[in-house]
Each structure stands twice: as C-alpha cells, then as structure tokens.
C-alpha cells in the first residue's frame, strides 16, 4: 500500500488542563500508530485566539502532527476527531513534494536564520 505525507491540525477546547490536553493528543497519536502511520513531526502551538467564536469559545489549544500513512488512515483519524467532544475543529491535508520539502526546511530552521540575516542587514 502506498504511503502518503499528511499534515493535520486540530483545535482542542480551552477548558482542558495541561494533563487532559496531553492525554487527548496522545490518543490521536495512538490512533495514527495503530493504523500504520509514521509520525514525522509534532508541534504544540499552545493556546491561541480563534478567528471567530466556535461553540461560544474564542480560544483553543492548537496542535499539529505531520505523518506518513496509507490513505485509509485519514478517515480513521477524522472519525476519532468527530467522536471526541474535546475537539473544536480539525483539518487534515495531503502534502505534495513541495510542501514536504518546505516542512523539512522549516524544521531545520532555515527560515529563522534567513529572518535573522535580514534583521542584521536592516
């Protein structure tokens, strides 16, 4: 079965404490691993303001997971998102080769070093 690169971002309700948030993220990580996905990278973006209120909430905990998996895994992951009342919103996208290369460069810190160089020039 062909493996594809994906990126998923989900927003958890701001009513959770740190432990509950970590347990929820771990649950989704396990859904991926149980279904044959390889987690490449994770980022916890923390508590952020939403662009518009969702379920009368104006903030949420954002989390990003980049993974490589067979195509059927996305359906299982999104079903787990829909079943969990702690998830406010989620988005999963398939990455093409350019997005994969961009994410790899971003993880290696190439863009941060460029921004620092521009600050020194300016």
TrEMBL record:
Recorded GO CC terms: cytoplasm; ribonucleoprotein complex; ribosome
Alphabetized UniProt keyword annotations: Ribonucleoprotein, Ribosomal protein, RNA-binding, rRNA-binding
Single GO term (MF): structural constituent of ribosome
Gene symbol of the encoding locus: rpsF
Annotated family: Belongs to the bacterial ribosomal protein bS6 family.
Name under which the protein is recorded: Small ribosomal subunit protein bS6
GO biological process, one term: translation
UniProt function note: Binds together with bS18 to 16S ribosomal RNA.
Source organism of this protein record: Pontibacter flavimaris
Superkingdom in the source lineage: Bacteria
Pfam families listed in its UniProt record: Ribosomal_S6
């Amino acid at each position: 079965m062909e493996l594809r690169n994906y990126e998923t971002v989900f927003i958890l309700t701001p009513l959770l404490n740190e432990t509950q948030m970590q347990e929820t993220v771990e649950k989704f990580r396990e859904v991926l691993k149980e279904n044959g996905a390889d987690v490449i990278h994770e980022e916890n973006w923390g508590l952020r303001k939403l662009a518009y209120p969702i379920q009368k909430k104006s903030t949420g905990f954002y989390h990003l997971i980049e993974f490589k998996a067979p195509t059927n895994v996305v359906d299982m992951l999104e079903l787990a998102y829909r079943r969990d009342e702690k998830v406010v919103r989620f988005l999963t996208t398939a990455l093409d080769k350019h997005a994969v290369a961009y994410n790899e460069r971003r993880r290696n810190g190439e863009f941060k070093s460029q921004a620092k160089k521009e600050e020194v020039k300016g």
